[in-house]
């Protein structure tokens, strides 16, 4: 089937927004919003972010969710999406239909409109990219910068489920966490409202909690102090080595944020009403650098604090 045939049969039916023009044009009209609009994009490459044997339905759901987590971390709600699909010739049309069906269902679940993109034949390996816009709840997006020394650090839900799923799959074991590796469980829209109301800085945790925390602190011109034993880990962490492994692997897509210490009581009350589980894990400090404790004792940190894209010598695969 030709590229035009793919679009007309599988993706045009998903493009219901008026500005999408049923994907019959090279441009789309973005919807008008009363406040600021943010935009993000993420790509997934076979052999790097997933295995060739992973179900395409899971890939579709993960593609949407890894972008939604970025939008939520900005204190925004997802709006409209552009899809870039590089489809290899060795994948069947039934495979494409399954991908499109799962993509449409996931977009609908988040209230996202597909408004355009591009489809191409890939010489080898599946390539996926989604660009997503989001409407800010407040008058400005929440950024990584903006926090101040003394602000407390919080994380939604728990960290390490994807890592546990990866280890279980590699060992040929059954584990409920394998589903978290394939289809990350991310916070709902209530998290965006919570961050819009309280966060001074925020980001999603995709490349490892420790590495992403350093990025947030640096963007805010601060250092950070983290109590590793206060982090909610999937199935808990019995040892320091286990905690460090879970906190540096990534693929969590939870929201890391800072908020003024004086807002703690109201923040916890609002989180409960929004149905968002949060844990206080540390604070930002004056200066720079990351200090970590485990059961009150200072921790010697590993050389690598998270997944590093493009690092020379890094493993080419991380599914």
Description:
The strands form 2 sheets. The chain has a 7-stranded mixed β-sheet, sandwiched between helices. The protein has 2 domains: 3-136, PurM-like, N-terminal domain (60s Ribosomal Protein L30, Chain: A); 152-298, PurM-like C-terminal domain (Phosphoribosyl-aminoimidazole Synthetase, Chain A, domain 2, Alpha-Beta Complex). Helix 2 runs parallel beside helix 3 and helix 6 (189-198) packs antiparallel against helix 9 (264-274). It contains 9 helices and 11 strands. The chain is α+β, with helices and mostly antiparallel strands and 319 residues long. The longest helix has 18 residues, at 56-73. Mean pLDDT is 92; it is low at 310-319. It is globular.
């Amino acid at each position: 089937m030709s590229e035009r045939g793919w679009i007309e049969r599988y993706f045009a039916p998903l493009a219901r927004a008026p500005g999408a023009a049923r994907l019959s044009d090279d441009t789309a009209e973005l919807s008008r919003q009363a406040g600021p609009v943010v935009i993000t994009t993420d790509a997934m490459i076979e052999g790097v972010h997933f295995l060739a044997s992973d179900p395409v339905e899971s890939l579709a759901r993960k593609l949407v969710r890894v972008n939604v987590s970025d939008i939520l971390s900005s204190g925004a709600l997802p709006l409209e999406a552009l899809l870039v699909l590089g489809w290899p010739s060795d994948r069947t049309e039934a495979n494409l239909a399954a991908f499109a069906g799962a993509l449409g269902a996931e977009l609908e679940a988040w209230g996202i409109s597909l408004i355009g993109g591009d489809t191409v034949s890939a010489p080898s390996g599946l390539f996926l990219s989604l660009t997503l816009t989001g409407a800010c709840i407040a008058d400005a997006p929440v950024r990584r910068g903006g926090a101040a020394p003394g602000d407390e650090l919080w994380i939604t839900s728990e960290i390490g489920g994807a890592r546990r799923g990866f280890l279980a799959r590699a060992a040929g074991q059954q584990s409920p966490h394998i589903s978290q590796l394939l289809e990350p469980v991310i916070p709902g829209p209530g998290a965006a409202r919570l961050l819009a109301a309280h966060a001074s800085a925020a980001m999603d945790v995709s490349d490892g909690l420790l590495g992403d925390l350093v990025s947030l602190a640096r963007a805010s011109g601060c250092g950070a102090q983290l109590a590793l034993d206060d982090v909610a880990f999937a199935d808990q962490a019995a040892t320091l080595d286990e905690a460090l492994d879970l906190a540096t692997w990534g693929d969590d897509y939870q929201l890391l944020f800072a908020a003024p210490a004086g807002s703690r009581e109201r923040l916890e009350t609002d989180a409960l009403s929004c149905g968002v589980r949060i844990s206080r894990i540390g604070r930002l400090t004056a200066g720079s650098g990351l200090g970590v404790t485990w059961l009150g004792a200072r921790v010697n940190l590993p050389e690598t604090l998270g997944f590093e894209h493009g690092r020379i010598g890094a493993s080419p695969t991380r599914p």
